[in-house]
Design a protein that fits this description.
Elements (H helix, E strand, L loop, with lengths): L1 H23 L15 H7 L5 H7 L9 H9 L6
GO molecular function, one term: calcium ion binding
Keywords: Signal
InterPro entries: EF-hand-dom_pair, EF_Hand_1_Ca_BS, EF_hand_dom
Length: 82
């Protein structure tokens, strides 16, 4: 009986980890200078293969920075990895 409880608990933990790991694997962009937007350098720190051309595409308002909304839209549209 005790062995069955331990097996169920182990199975539960494994299932919980399986659900949590994809969320933890998301790419996080660090706003290093704390200005509330992401520069090309900050984006490239998280996405080393990000080109200046793709950065410009992500920058919907063409202000030279990526806002949180622009980053979320790029992820949602599959332009960059989550």
């Amino acid at each position: 009986m005790e062995k069955t409880k331990k097996m169920r608990k182990s199975a539960f933990v494994v299932a919980l980890l399986a659900l949590a790991l994809p969320a933890m694997a998301q790419t996080m962009v660090d706003d290093a200078d704390g200005d509330g937007v992401y520069s090309l350098a900050e984006m490239q720190a998280a996405y080393p293969d990000l080109s200046e051309e793709l950065f410009a595409e992500l920058d919907a308002d063409a202000d030279g920075m990526i806002s949180a909304e622009e980053l979320a839209a790029a992820k949602q549209d599959g332009m960059i990895a989550e």
